[in-house]
């Protein structure tokens, strides 16, 4: 039984968490705009100084920085639409836009890593072909390295604070650009000091690191896209929260999946077998509120209320259980035409069989009650799907 569309107000701690979609979207966009401004400034500086100092490695690094602007725009697009509310075509929201973009950025990181490895191999084979560089290029490369490393740390901190894998991917992309600037700085410094072999060696080490990070981020995004659940430790914490909710007597099935750093949870909760629908629904609401308050990373909880453990049902007779209309017809037949229509009929489907409680408006005469009891016992003896039919009368005030 899922919770209603309108839930009671969440505790302040849950409402104030940065998982709030609007605030989260603004923070992601603000962080990405800082990256856009930084990359644009660095690209212009690298391109101009690279041409002036005859440092073609700086010009190439400028092209790499310009490529970051494209990925930054992808992040802005994903952040803008990833937090859009659910609609008819996307009933679970648009969070997977962030996941898909993270996978793309992971692929870009892996490609950059492969590129560094490839270029380092070529440079090792052609070390004598490296051009003479002006010393000013080294200063620009060092400043670029500092700026890129600072941007990496700033973006990664925001990614952890907002629980945004998309920002984390973009942060490591900034680290890859810092790595390329490191390669340029080491290469220029080595060339000025007479050790040109330092550049291809540094490029190879950084290439391996970038390739590993790209593959890791891409694999994380793929795991989310195929609905991989949370860790066993996180799952155990969720179980404890649900099982400690008043009214819950068992939890026999729970599923989780991630969506853009948030968690969606489905739980089969066992309650007392003869609770009313409204009381069972109240237990469902309690589970929802407790999980959301204790686990702010959980965006939604779908609670299915069960009157018994589905995994421990006894052997049931073959055939279809009677529907309510069939039960009412049976009760009417047993009562006969001389007894008034029952005030209320409650049906309990438990253990693969049916228990029926019938509340009468008035108590029948003693003879009629005895005859009703015999008819009911004889009828139950021939029915495999019925366990009991009980008749009750109101207590006189």
Automatic annotation (TrEMBL):
Keywords: Membrane, Transmembrane, Transmembrane helix, Transport
Stretches assigned to the Cation efflux protein transmembrane domain: 33-226
GO cellular component assignments: membrane
Superkingdom of the source species: Bacteria
Topology of the protein relative to the lipid bilayer: Multi-pass membrane protein
Main location: membrane
TM segment ranges: 33-56, 100-118, 138-156, 201-219
InterPro entries: Cation_efflux, Cation_efflux_CTD, Cation_efflux_CTD_sf, Cation_efflux_TM, Cation_efflux_TMD_sf, CDF_Transporter
GO molecular function: monoatomic cation transmembrane transporter activity
Region named Disordered: 1-24
Stored Pfam families: Cation_efflux, ZT_dimer
Residue ranges annotated for the Cation efflux protein cytoplasmic domain, each copy included: 231-308
Compartment list: Membrane
Protein family according to the UniProt entry: Belongs to the cation diffusion facilitator (CDF) transporter (TC 2.A.4) family.
Name of this chain's protein: Uncharacterized protein
Source organism (scientific name): Thauera terpenica 58Eu
């Amino acid at each position: 039984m899922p919770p209603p569309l309108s839930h009671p107000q969440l505790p302040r701690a849950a409402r104030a968490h940065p998982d709030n979609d609007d605030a989260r979207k603004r923070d992601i966009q603000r962080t990405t705009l800082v990256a856009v401004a930084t990359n644009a400034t660095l690209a212009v500086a690298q391109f101009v100084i690279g041409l002036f100092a005859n440092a073609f490695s700086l010009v190439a690094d400028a092209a790499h920085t310009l490529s970051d602007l494209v990925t930054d725009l992808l992040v802005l697009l994903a952040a803008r639409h990833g937090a859009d509310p659910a609609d008819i075509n996307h009933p679970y929201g648009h969070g997977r836009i962030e996941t898909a973009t993270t996978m793309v950025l992971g692929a870009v990181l892996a490609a950059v890593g492969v590129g560094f490895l490839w270029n380092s191999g070529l440079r090792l084979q052609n070390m004598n072909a490296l051009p003479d560089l002006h010393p000013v290029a080294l200063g620009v490369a060092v400043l670029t390295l500092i700026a890129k490393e600072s941007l990496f740390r700033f973006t990664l901190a925001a990614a952890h604070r907002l629980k945004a894998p998309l920002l984390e991917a973009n942060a490591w992309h900034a680290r890859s650009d810092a790595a390329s600037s490191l390669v340029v700085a080491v290469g220029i410094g080595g060339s000025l000091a007479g050790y040109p072999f330092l550049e291809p060696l540094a490029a190879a080490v950084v290439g391996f690191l970038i390739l590993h990070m790209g593959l890791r981020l891409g694999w994380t995004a793929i795991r989310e896209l195929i609905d991989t659940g949370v860790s066993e430790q996180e799952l155990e914490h969720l179980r404890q929260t649900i099982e400690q909710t008043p009214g819950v007597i068992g939890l026999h099935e729970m599923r989780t999946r991630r969506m853009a750093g948030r968690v969606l949870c489905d739980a089969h909760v066992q309650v007392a077998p003869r609770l009313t629908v409204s009381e069972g629904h109240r237990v469902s609401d309690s589970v929802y509120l407790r999980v959301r308050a204790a686990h702010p990373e959980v965006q939604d909880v779908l609670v299915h209320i069960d009157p018994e453990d589905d995994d421990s049902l006894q052997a049931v007779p073959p055939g279809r259980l009677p529907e309510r209309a069939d039960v009412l017809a049976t009760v009417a037949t047993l009562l006969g035409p001389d007894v008034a229509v029952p005030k209320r009929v409650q049906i309990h489907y438990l253990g693969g069989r049916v228990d029926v409680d019938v509340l009468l408006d008035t108590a029948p005469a003693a003879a009629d009650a005895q005859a009703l009891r015999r008819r009911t016992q004889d009828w139950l003896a021939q029915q495999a799907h019925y366990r009991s039919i009980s008749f009750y009368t109101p207590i006189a005030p």
